[in-house]
Amino acid sequence: MNETKAARLSGQIRVVGAGLLGASIGLAVRENGVDAILADASPSQLRLAIDYGAGRAERDDDDPSIVIVCVPPDVVADVIEAELARYPRAVVTDVASVKLAPFHELQRRGVDLVRYIGSHPMAGRERGGAISARADLFLGRPWVICRDHETPRDALALVEDLALDLGAVPLEMTPEEHDASVGLVSHVPQIVASTLAKQLVDAPDSAVRLTGQGLRDTVRIASSQPELWVQILTSNGGPVVEVLDRLVADLSIVADALRSPDATGSRREIADVIAAGNTGVARLPGKHGQDRRFAQIVVMVDDTPGQLGRLFTELGEIGINLEDLRLEHSPGAQIGLAEIGVLPEVQRRAVDELEARGWRIASV
Fold first, then answer.
1. TM spans, by residue (predicted)?
2. What is the spatial distance between Cα 58 and Cα 200, in angstroms, rounded to a whole number?
3. pTM, whole model, 2 decimals?
4. Cα 179 to the chain's mean position, in Å?
5. CATH 1.10.3660.10 region(s) of the chain?
6. How many CA atoms does the CB half-sphere of 71 hold within 13 Å?
């Protein structure tokens, strides 16, 4: 995966849990020549991950330098405790999306946590399991590392090396900071997507047929596993409830304004919420973590083989870097819309060059 820099990790790593994250870690480190040992409570899941090339089965003489625990939140503390005991020379980390609850549980049990460092890669897909694993899953994604004052420098370095070898960007946070942050940027969005998608269950077919990219974008993550999310949300209930309370308050403001749209201040209330959303979305990191927004160009693409590839090729030929991309295609239509993001300073040149090559620009 990384052809320009040598791998930082070497020897053996052990991955417990051969689902999406575990298998993706195995695939990535194996590309760097690292011996990946896989373990999973499910024999079939383990065999599948091995068949996909994510690693090998464990042996009695294994001696990993680092153990990565990739199991559901309700058993993560149990597995961390077991791995610390089984491999007394290894550093143990985990990739659970909640950090404070397992940390407190391990403290309550009196487990020596000097060799444990909680971490969390902000990466994933709508579909889980080894079949969905990808070696580039973590590329460019934040990888939160939760250290404390007792964390040995060499142990911290191992977890940082793991993140860097996978192409991720290490970030240090306390468990409290992490859980509050993911409550806002990950856990509440899941609830919002799922509750909005729930409204489609009894919606008339005539409404569903009108679905555009806005709704698809908003409910994209609503296909996630309910069993897993029950564990995640109940483990991080406090921070999630704080965000939900603020969200409900804002929704109530809009609902009340719409009930009496002609009342003094109603239209301003609606406008203020929408405008605040503009301000919030402008803060989202762009490509390479830059806080800059991209200019949009919507290109009409004929629904024939090779057209999208031709668009990408010609953008490269005119020296335009594609910063973002969204595709929209209405059922029955013979064209699609490719909304491409470019740097604002090259937007005009990109439009002129594309039109000169025969592309139809729907909007800029």
1. none
2. 46
3. 0.77
4. 15
5. 181-282
6. 24
